[in-house]
């Protein structure tokens, strides 16, 4: 399936893997790229040289294009932005800020820049700044979220900008992919579905929680702080929401979640860890390889769109 996104990124299928902190490392990114999509290394808050090492390891596993996701609030963002250029990475996705200050450096190096946006206004701003495409991410997604649903956001962004739009949030199968295309997207970005992939380093306990999740099993923490995060319900989220209702300050809430994502991903602590996952977790029924996930979605989507 050819779209402006597949042409822009030189990939076979218009499927991009989300840049999930602790999850999106070199093995997962390489597996998605080798399967014909675009794998992403999530820089998160990692030291710059750790990101460089991840890039080098990814190159050893794939000769296909892959990208790096940079959280612009990360204190190491300046160094990571430079390392992307030095290592010849083809694509950068960005979140939590405006990448304008890096745009000239990236453009001169031939890097494709794709910011993640949660509003039409931000999409327009990113287009003016020189972005090559945008990821319009709805509030159904796991992790940090905006306030508009994918179904409402994607078509409005597609109408507002000339650059390609990549739909994200609540997409895990062929039906979601086909719907995203009909809404004006030219590719999709998926996170939760790849959490439960065979190549994902996520602890088996975490994967099992995603696979067994029902439609009502996610919740949102951090609404009072202005930094809402969607994750699966557990002891930690109940305590967090209880503290929010009691008026706890930001620092008290931060203490509760400090290191909690690592606890879940690496240690398999599904009681006190943060199990970031989207509302679509209820559609993830089994672990599968990245190749199997992408082929199944593309075959199903072609049939649906062909109707």
SSE-based structural type: alpha/beta
Gross morphology is: globular
Alpha plus pi helix count: 14
Helix content: 40-55%
| Rounded Rg | 18 Å
Mean of pLDDT: 94
Share of residues in strands: 5-15%
N- to C-terminal distance: 15 Å
H-E string: HEHEHEHEHEHEEHEHEHHEEHHHH
The main β sheet shows up as: 8 strands, parallel
Low-pLDDT stretches? none
Oligomer: single chain
Strand order of the largest sheet: 1-9-8-6-5-4-3-2
Give the beta-strand count: 11
List keywords for this structure.
44% helix; globular; alpha/beta; three-stranded antiparallel beta sheet; 307 residues
Summarize, please.
By secondary structure, the protein is an alpha/beta fold.
Descriptive report:
By secondary structure, this protein is an alpha/beta fold. It has 14 helices and 11 strands. The protein has helices at 4-9, 26-34, 48-61, 77-86, 100-108, 120-129, 150-160, 174-182, 192-195, 204-212, 235-245, 250-257, 260-267, 290-306; strands at 15-17, 39-42, 66-71, 91-95, 112-117, 134-137, 143-144, 165-168, 187-190, 218-221, 229-232. The strands form 2 sheets. An 8-stranded parallel sheet has the order 1-9-8-6-5-4-3-2. The protein has a 3-stranded antiparallel sheet with strand order 7-11-10, covered by helices on one side. Helix 4 (77-86) links the parallel strand 3 and strand 4. Helix 2 (26-34) runs parallel beside helix 3 (48-61) and helix 3 (48-61) packs parallel to helix 4 (77-86). The protein is globular and about 50 Å long. The model has no long low-confidence stretch (mean pLDDT 94).
